[in-house]
Batch of 4 targets.
Target 1
Amino acid sequence: MSKTDNKKKKDKEKDTLNTKEAVKEEEVLEETKEKANTAEETGEGGNNPLEAELEKKTEEMEKLKDQLMRNMAEYDNYRKRTSRERMELEPEITAKTVTEFLTVADNLERALTVECADENFKKGVEMIYQSFMETLGKLGVEQIPSDGEFNPSLHQAVQQVPAQDGQESGMIASTFQKGYKLGDRILRFAMVAVVA
């Protein structure tokens, strides 16, 4: 006989033994229930040790079931809480990350204002800038308008300039640094000069 045949034979014997044990346990349980029922019918249930054992096991099972249900509820609450916390943190993480990249946008803008002899090089920098700004737009980042009337909740006045012909007081004269926002959150205020 080969090793595989021996193993199959042993596995089959184990399965048979397990089945026999399971049947035997069922029979014992049935007998216990029958004895308990008989004891109840005859009024002998007060001192029957099998009935007491069955009652004790039933109580243990109920306690374990209750504990399992509590653990499941606790896990479900934990899962919901962490999901909610992650959703609340996502805008903060995005805002912090995008804020770090705003200096790149500033440097690209400065590069575009410098005179360049090679038009293809300047066009390449311009394409990179446009691509970068499109990516920021996909993330929900918007540029704060820095023309028109001064708004202290969007702009930071760093200089006041005297009014010239046709300029009204409180209007933005020039922009030193562009501002950006992500939804309602201000990432960086626009630095502007205001007409006095």
Target 2
Amino acid sequence: MQSPNILLIGCGPHAKRVYLPILKETEFEFGTKLKAVVELKEKENDVSKFVNNFFTDVEFVYTEKFDSKYKMSIPSQLEMKLNRIVKERNINGVIIATDPLNHLQYALWAQKQKLHILMDKPISTYENISNSIKQARQLIRDYKILMKNYSAERAFIVNAQRRFLPQFEIIQNRINEVAKKYGMPVTSMQSTHSDGQWRLPNEVLTLKYHPLLGWGKVSHSGYHFIDMASKIVKDSFLVAGKQFDELTVYSKFVRPSGVLMQQSQEDLLKIFGEEYLKLDSRTDEELLELYKLNNEAEVDATSLINLTYKGIPITNITLNLIHNGFSRRSWMLPNMKDLYKGNGRVRHEYHNIQQGCLQNIQIHSYQSNDNHDTNTEKDFFVGGNNHYDIYIYKNIGILGGEPLEIITAKDIAEKYSLNKEKVMNELARHEAVRQFLEVIIGKKTANEAKSNLTEHDLSVQLMSMIYESGVSENEVVQKFNIKRS
């Protein structure tokens, strides 16, 4: 059995919270060793100290930020360093957790080195994708290039963690059972996700973590819900033996300028008092000009998606992706120590999935707190960190059973013996890492792992079309070939 010798590329808030702890936890079980870390030079002191709390004998490579626009490779000097590390330290797996602007370049390098890959979502994005049709279309090209170099002998897992949630598997299985027996795919789906990412005007212009200039919500958490809808709907069509051959997308973005119209500088002064003037005394007009000059991106994005077969519309999907929603933030200065989970972010998530007259599945997940580090039994109920209720309504005259079945997160935690002190989304991220390691040691094949690169074709195409429509403010229509197993 080959032990996982891991290279971590990118050690930001997500990697610190998820990847380092799970790599350490699996050290005994899998023989996992973190051999090297790549990060930006500006983060050198912080990263070295943090990583050394978990692992020793780690080699660090610090690099300057490099331009990603349309380039297919990392800088030659960096490539030589990484090639040496792979050889000398017997690296066999790489976790790519960088800014997604550089996902493609690192993934192509890792494929060339024949490494197992676990990569954060999205698969790729661009620095001004919210304002460029050309950059929006590049996403499909990027995916095709990675697929051209794909080998089923090695893992290439995209960490879209909702695919690893046990409740996601329950939902998909229930949908597929009906689709297989009665030939009924998903006929409509509505998804809303709000993460309470409240940014003040000065932060819009200065913060680089989850930025709102150039690229925004769709490239941040938005990909999870594009992917969730893609996976659920596409699988239901395949199992039902049905087809669609064309996609139509119409998107509308609310940008920082729109948020300023909702909540002006005068309104913020009412919230924070005279102290706010010391932070930012610019007028609305000055800010609007700066937003425009700096390529403001989407804060909120709403998309109507239609699946068509032979010119006949079949299924509608609505995605409502929101940063500017309910938040627990009430302070003026951002929590720079943790912009990932510690700045008032609160998740509200809702999905409504119809299978014609046969079945309706609803998912409700609503948090009221912004501290997700400690969890109790109460966190399984509405407002708790782990709240996740599934309602399944059935046409019992045809399907049998009960007309309404309710499955709670507590039910799922007990059934799967999950750690009740952890937030389920974080457990799902840990499961993604475990499956990645299982492929490396030969316990799983690459095709047995969830969220394989091969399964993201529809997700990438929809992300591309959402951006293209959001930029052009027009309907976008493209062909799609639904592949059968």
Target 3
Amino acid sequence: MWFKTIRQGSKYLAIFPVHPILGAVFPENRVQYALRWGRRLIPPFIAFILLWNYVQGGGLQGISFFYTQKVNWPSALLCIVTLVLILLHGYYWAGKRAALKLNPKLTLFYRQLCQALGKEPAPVPTMFDLARALHEGLEKLDPDFLRKL
């Protein structure tokens, strides 16, 4: 269930369009930006933590690698797990957000957008359905339809 939500969040953020008007209304653009930077910066931080753990344990002074890891390994592992969980939390939040049902105002906007696109709206629309419709609307329609938000 947890991994399914994370996978759904990844799909949701991949399909949610980046647009200045949408950025003012929805927090998804800011989350996308933060996760994009996180995917770039966290792997070097993990490498740095492992290297620092090795050096602080005396790894460059002739002591074997496995001997040094016993001293600092729990703190290094905790730091790495924390960094990875920060990224996973962003995708988990997005997955929970994707499953939210739309409020009445957004439901009306969603139905009007589906009508303009010539497609059948979902009976109980969610944020994921809205993201799909917005993505398709920005490809096919003039971006002025976003002003109705």
Target 4
Amino acid sequence: MDGTLIDSRADLAATVNHTRRDLGLDELPMDDVLCHVGQGAKYLLAHAIPEKADDVERLWEIFRSHYAEHMLETVELYPTVRKTLEELSSRGWLLGVNTAKPAFATKAILEHFGLARYFKGAVVAGGDCAEMKPSAMPLRQCASLMGGHRLSSHDWMVGDSWTDMQCASNAGIKGAFCAFGFGKLADSRYTIKINRMEELLRHLKAED
């Protein structure tokens, strides 16, 4: 989701800073917040608000309430996302979402942009699985929601962070790294790098 399908940088940073202000703390620059995105909301909060990391449940309550009200204010689809999903769907590809983003936000944003129909219920969000990326478990769970699909070397994970690419590696599938996102690659490896979502179509054409 974040950094791959949607540009949610402003909303995430604003909500973290709202939480900090609510606790009497100074705001952080956007980049200092975004560097912690990708491993779930509670990880983000514990690392972006280390002063209160011992009370992450309280941080989560403040964050969730504010984010639920404001998560659709500035969020945008990345260019060519809808076109790419439409084309892949028409080619018969099975599509799913595997994200660390909280389930309530994932569902609301997919519905807001009219994207839920492309995934047909194959959505595994933060809190839906016992483990999160880079574990392959949520990816396999997502695949099972695609009519019991079993992952193979023909499948792809598309994402903008090291957790996505490591998840792909752990699951034995290919990884498409979205250089247009705001995640960090670190030293993770990928199969291809794309600068716009539609570039994926060219690489996957041979797989049709």
